[in-house]
Design a protein that fits this description.
The protein is an alpha+beta fold. It is 40% helix and 25% strand. A 7-stranded mixed beta sheet has the order 1-2-3-4-5-7-6, with helices on both faces. A hairpin with a 7-residue loop joins strand 3 and strand 4. Helix 4 crosses helix 6. The longest helix has 29 residues.
Length: 193
């Protein structure tokens, strides 16, 4: 059984596509003040989020979303540090308040680690504020080494090399996610007519 099977309310985690930038932006705008501060390492305005989530941000990043009934409720962003061919990346997570402490962060991190592994990323950095106990607990769950630096905590996870099985796991997840996204888009189209 994977962490995906334990998600609440038939939630689904899948890779997001460039055309879903508005869904990601709307999710980040729905975060409460504390969740937004934890995601960005400090308070940010709605205008900042609007300028942060642009189609161009998707060129380097891989974003996985947690969806419930077609609405994005959590996300994990994987972004290479130093360019696409880098062996290092940063991961950032956001989960709306009602969905926190339900395994969503663990499932998002599991999918992010698989993606990092299959892209040859050896070190995954996760920065968080010193008072963000949930993120620190999540990092420890996946054997991250934590270091404290000027009021923040940096978790670093080494990912193993890709294997044929890990590549197939990602391909199957992506195929399932793509089919689900198409069905969701059709459903929304029919509801609006």
């Amino acid at each position: 059984m994977s962490l995906q099977d334990l998600l609440p309310d038939s939630g689904l985690i899948r890779k997001m596509w460039i055309g879903e930038a508005a869904r990601y932006r709307n999710h980040l705008l729905r975060l409460d003040t504390d969740s937004r501060s934890r995601r960005f390492g400090g308070g940010v305005s709605d205008a900042y989020i609007r300028s942060y989530v642009t189609p161009s941000m998707w060129l380097d990043a891989v974003v996985h979303g947690f969806f419930v009934s077609g609405t994005l409720r959590g996300a994990a962003e994987l972004r290479p540090i130093g360019g696409r061919l880098s062996k290092q990346a940063e991961a950032a997570f956001s989960v709306e308040t009602d969905w926190q402490s339900h395994g969503v962060g663990s499932a998002l991190l599991e999918r992010t680690l698989l993606t990092a592994r299959n892209r040859g990323i050896r070190h995954l950095h996760m920065a968080c504020l010193a008072d963000n106990r949930r993120m620190q607990q999540l990092a420890r769950k996946f054997d991250a080494e934590l270091s404290f630096d000027f009021g923040s905590v940096v978790g670093e996870v080494e990912s193993p090399h890709a294997t044929p099985l890990s590549v197939v796991r990602e391909m199957v997840s992506d195929g399932h996610g793509f089919a689900t996204a198409i069905l969701d888009a059709q459903s929304r189209l029919f509801r609006s007519t």
